[in-house]
Structure formats: C-alpha cells, structure tokens
Amino acid sequence: MKTKSSITYRLTGLILLLTCISLSAFAQEGLHIASLFDKYGREKNVTCVELNGSILKSYRMTAYKSLVFEEVTPYKEEILRCLKQDINTNKVEKTQEVTEKGQLRSAYYRLEPASRKGQELNRYILFKIGKEDMATLVYIEGLLSEEELMNILYKR
After folding, report:
1. Pairing of strands 135-142, 119-129
2. 3-class SS at 61?
3. Checking phi first, is residue 101 left (phi over 0); if not, alpha (psi -120 to 50) or beta?
4. Which of 3, 49, 52, 84 has the fewest CB atoms nearer than 10 Å to its CB?
5. Do the domain assignments include residue 54?
C-alpha cells in the first residue's frame, strides 16, 4: 500500500520532469530547426548534445542543443530548408554565411531576442559543413552576448 507521502513525492517528481521537458521544448519555440532535433536526435549516424544545469549557467546560456551528422548528405536538403524558413520567418539581426560553389558551407544567425520569464534572451543558430561532409547544427539561447559566444567558439 502506498502512503500519502510517497504519492506526493512521485507526483512532485513527475511535475518537475514535465517542467524540464517543456522548458527545453519552449527554447526553440517557433523555429523549424526544432523539428530536426526531434527527428534526427536519435539517428544512428547523428550525435545529439543537449546541455543543462551548471554547464549552461557557467556560460550564461539557458539552452544549448547540437546535432553532429557524420554524413550530412541525406539530411542536407531538409536542414537547409529549415534554416531558410527560420531566417525568413524570424527577425534575423545578424547573418554571416560562407558559400562555396553556390552551396552553403557555414552560417551564423543571431535571431531577435526571445522574452522568457521577464528576460530578453539572445538566440543563435550555427551551422557548418566540415571535412568529408560532416556537419554540425547548433542552437543556443541565453543571456550571453555575441562577444561572449565568439570567445567560446574561438577560444584555444
């Protein structure tokens, strides 16, 4: 027989779990790339990384998600379509793109800040196709400035 306190603890745990899941999903609200994380995050040749807790806080982030595709070719068209939709439907404050032979090789997008819990959070999308068609897609959200992000990315 379950006691009142054990039921209360389980219910509290369930509520906390659902809150964490919903906050993670809320981070990419309205972005087409969110579907890529859901769809390909568990694929065999794709590595999904989602940071949480103290690691995020130490970099002044509230969300960090990345997908690394060992071979991007089967996914490339869909990724590029989602990126294009996101930059067309969201206000992009800064864009840096590198193309090679008319093909996008890397991209940096700073989106309009999102308001969460009374704070204006900066949002960034990064995409890069590297050697042997390995590719990385990253979504970052948080209080960190563009300068702080660049320091993280280019820190040796």
Report:
1. antiparallel
2. strand
3. left
4. 3
5. yes
Cα separation, 113 vs 48, whole angstroms: 24
For the chain, how long is the longest CA-to-CA vector?
69
**What pTM does this model have?**
0.80
In a domain, 91, yes or no: yes
Q: Is 21 within the bounds of a domain?
A: no
Strand pairing category for 61-69 and 119-129:
unpaired
CA-based R_g, the chain, Å: 18
pLDDT tens digits, 24-47: 444 566 799 999 999 999 999 999
Task: Look at residue 67 and tell me if it is in a domain.
Answer: yes
Q: What is the count of structural domains for the chain?
A: 1
Going by pLDDT thresholds of 50, 70 and 90, the confidence category of residue 156 is low
Q: Which domain holds residue 80?
A: 30-154
